[in-house]
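Need tokens for this chain, all 228 residues.
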Amino acid sequence: MEHWRSHLDLYCERLGPGFWAEPLNAVSNAAFILAAAYGFVLWRRAGAADRPALGLVLVTLAVGIGSFLFHTFAERWSLYADVIPITVFIYAYLVLALRRFVGLGLWPGLAVTAAFFAFNLAFAPALRAAIGPGALASLNGSESYFPAALALLAIATWLVIPAGAGSRPGRSLLVGAAVFLVSLTFRTLDNAVCGTLPFGTHFVWHTLNGVLLAILLRAAIVEGPGRG
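Here are the structure tokens for all 228 residues:
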């Protein structure tokens, strides 16, 4: 039980164990709640029959709740409440994008997702071997999101190159990839800027990722085959 209740201090803004020790990091999770609300409105307008899209909307809501719990309680159990919904969203959206945008069948889509899972597992150890543990530590844990950013960029490029500017989901995913890269930059810089910005930059990561998820939900609900 003590393991699950152990305190975690991972971000610049947190200076103690208090519930509101990370006010900006906590409140900025409203961006995910707003993204989920936006996605739900789009889902209703589209006919309220798209169950995979509704699942993504609910997972987006869970991302906001889980991240809020982590940045308030800051204990090991709340870390899992934070990372599990994020992981579910990444893999669920990958399967949906491969099927809805790329046009793969269920089993090929799952096979590509399994390959991405293996790549994800191998990425951090390979990066550590390439740049060294010191350089890896300077990334502040952001390297765990690099494979997702690469996958998003790869799918967007795959959609845009053959279709040109006519691929609406491709354009949306490219915009999403750009937002993701900027948000990752702010996540990476958080602890490095504590001396000049005591509240850090992690809250910007939350805010921009809320924008990212709204873009991805819109692409899934409005811009897939037969939509728009």
